[in-house]
Amino acid sequence: MISPPASVDGFVKQFLANLNFDQGVSLSASDANDQYLALAGTVRDYLMARWLEDQTRQREQQAKTVCYLSAEYLLGKQLDNNLLAARLGEIATDALEQCGISMDDMREVEVEPGLGNGGLGRLAACFIDSLATMSVPTIGYGIRYEYGIFRQTFVDGQQVEQPDAWLRMGSPWEFPHPEAAQTISFGGRTETYDDEGVTRTRWIPDWNVLAVPYNMMVPGYHNGRVNTLRLWRAAATNAFDLRIFNSGDYEESVRAQTFAENISKVLYPEDSTPQGKELRLQQQYFFVAASINDFLDRVLPEGFDLEKLPDRVIFQLNDTHPVIGVPELMRVLVDERGMEWEDAWAITQKCFAYTCHTLLPEALEVWSVDLLGRLLPRHLEIIYRINDDFLEEVREKFGDDMMRIRNMSIIGEHPYRSVRMAYLATVAGAKVNGVAELHSQLLRDKVLHEFAEMYPDKFTNVTNGVTPRRFIRLANPSLASLITEALGAGWTVDLERLRGLEALAEDPEFRERFAAVKAGNKRRLSDVLERRDGVTIDDNHLLDVMVKRLHEYKRQTLKVLHIVTEYESIISGKVAAADIQPRTFIFGAKAAPGYAMAKRIIHLINSVASVVNNDPRVEGRLKVVFPPNYNVTLAESIIPAADLSEQISLAGKEASGTGNMKLALNGALTIGTDDGANVEIRQLVGDDNFFLFGMSEPEVEALWAKGYKPADFYQADPQLRAAMDLIASGAFSGGDRTVFEPVVSNLLYDDRFMVLADYASYIEAQKRVDLAYADQDAWTRSAILNIARSGFFSSDRSMRDYLDRIWHARPLL
Ligand code: 26W
């Protein structure tokens, strides 16, 4: 089955057919949404043949499949990525033009599926893009949330969340498959029974829901391959109870439906502190049980010998959120397929691998045995058995060391009896990896050190990466064509080829062209922000960018202190505004709705912005811009325009970061601590092309151990004091000292993430930035070297590492 030849006329024909027959409107009567849905349908049809062929190929070759289990996928808009993959960009644009439609208008109509919070969710999206482009058989499994990450608005500078009804106008990139629905059970009890002399256990659940799969295409780049992202929607097994309905209790008759649907209703907007809510655990079990049983029942051929399961699939756990899948596979193999426990466990341990994405103890999920026992009684039993066998193994290896036993037990006792999901994932996983060298080292040496002593070969590292298709080729087309002109097009799937730009960094003409690309991206960003939020960017300003979730460990407050220091130095007359390097500070950041301090910091940033931006004494030399609702689409406009990339987390707190990679690959210079992947960026781009500051992780530990008194730093540093006092004075809150008092006092008396300790080094580094930026040509050379030496940060390379070290799968033939 071959896809229709791509020609402008052919595309026009397909498009109009889709508009008329699928959307049911004529061109003249159609509105932008009709046209967008028809366009998406047309592009989809061009990719469909490949998709179907690939599924056949995967089935025929019985190749080992990577099942990526993730509670989040931050996909970004699909249209351009699918047009790029299908080489249809120009043809579609010309075809639409023939129909009097502008592709830019179509791009505006598309809604971004925000099925994720931040780093973890976006990483999953980059990974499945790379696996498709590398022709590796992959199924991305997740949840089809009806409401994604909230839409952020600012009211008087404060974050207000709006629901994200992304499906309201239809979702043309998905295909429902109700015929492949899975029944997922909850609650109830277990009982043992005799099965021809073998004691077996059965689970008698209380209630069930249906998991209905929706497939989305994951097209490879120019390789004719299309993998599948399979997202589950919850529905009631019996949507409507006629008996209750006929009894006149209409509300009761549909209650089951609404109750069931709640499971996939909304994404939890937390990205660091689990709320431990029952619905969250329901979500996790719902999608993981549906995914595992979908693979066993639908992908594996009839009568498949489950002993060989590890040769056929690897379930990659994207953090602990899907780890309930371990006892689920054990339940299916032992209770349903009648396998011996030991055999089932041996298989299970080979079928799972675990990636940890955090270092914050509070972000490690634990579920109370009460809740687990009530919702998933059989799974709790299985976890207890896994733990018993594991602790037996610990005793054999380390003797009866009670402290070690208690520390390593999957079951924690304090503050309440709970299951430590990271420990379960570590015990069950064939491999455990961190997402940057430093992170993986800290997992081995600190967070999971007893486990690293027990299973030294289990621990590995795979440094994160980002897809060059979306974050260079699509987000920065002018840079992409400059690179392709210089190096050929191969870099898009072989990013190490960017090395070829090193020599060109020495070429003044090439530097000039690069500088023009950056300037053009600044103007483009200014147009986007003017249309979106009514603000403009001065393109002779240094664009200082900090875009990431709002979290105290990421230290947006340190960035605010820098801005206030600059501002204070002007209004106090210490520095003439004219002597200041003109800068525009761009923030992008959502705070988890329940995270009060994060929301207060957002309020502070917006308050500083409105004072600084409107103070004539600043003479426009400083500008603070904080567009609301930072998401993948906004990132695609901000990142190509950035000069300076702010990666200023306290060393030892950011697992990796991926924004740092995207910014370096788009020619921004990094000011950062030796944290997460910043370390590897600095090692690759070179110290001369990176503004390092602050304590290293061991220095942080040492200061903490010595006893950290933030107020001492305040007392000792007049510049810091001036900045803190200005905030405390109410200068940014209409003289009301109470508004930001909690932020100031937290820094003075708590400061868990040592903002005050790193302040002086940071300000000194920012001086180096100003000096460096004054020599535009040298800055441009350094920017080009950052790109040239950042090819390592392609998610294709990350996938190669996972394939070699963890998955042992290979591309389809
Ligand atoms: C249950 C609450 C919750 C939800 C999400 C806790 C933790 C998470 C994620 C693990 C948080 C996250 O997104 N971590 C980020 O993952 C990125 C991809 O590996 C890293 O680059 C970031 O450093 C890390 O903060």
Please, what is the average pLDDT? 96
Distance between the termini: 18 Å
| Shape summary | globular
What radius of gyration results from the CA coordinates? 27 Å
Oligomer: single chain
Bound compounds, each kind once, are: ligand 26W
Strand tally: 25
Q: CATH homologous superfamily of the largest domain?
A: Glycogen Phosphorylase B
Derived from helix and strand composition plus strand pairing, the structural class reads alpha/beta
Number of domains: 3
CATH topology of the largest domain: Rossmann fold
Keywords: Carbohydrate metabolism, Glycosyltransferase, Pyridoxal phosphate, Transferase
Modified residues (N6-(pyridoxal phosphate)lysine): 662
Enzyme class: transferase
EC number: 2.4.1.1
What are the main properties of this structure?
3 domains; 6-stranded parallel beta sheet; Rossmann fold; alpha/beta; binds ligand 26W; 813 residues; single chain; 10-stranded mixed beta sheet; Glyco_trans_35; Glycg_phsphrylas
Please, could you describe this protein's structure?
- Its cofactor is pyridoxal 5'-phosphate.
- It is an enzyme of class 2 (transferase).
- The protein is α/β, with parallel strands linked by helices and 813 residues long.
- The protein has 3 domains: 1-61 and 89-109, no CATH class; 65-77 and 112-361 and 420-463, Rossmann fold (3-Layer(aba) Sandwich); 475-793, Glycogen Phosphorylase B (Rossmann fold, 3-Layer(aba) Sandwich), CATH 3.40.50.
- It has 34 helices and 25 strands.
- The strands form 6 sheets. Strands 1, 4, 7, 8, 11, 12, 13, 14, 18 and 19 form a 10-stranded mixed β-sheet that branches. Strands 22-21-20-23-24-25 form a 6-stranded parallel β-sheet, sandwiched between helices.
- α23 (556-571) crosses α32.
- It is globular, with a radius of gyration of 27 Å.
- The two termini are 18 Å apart.
- It binds ligand 26W.
- Ligand 26W binds next to α6.
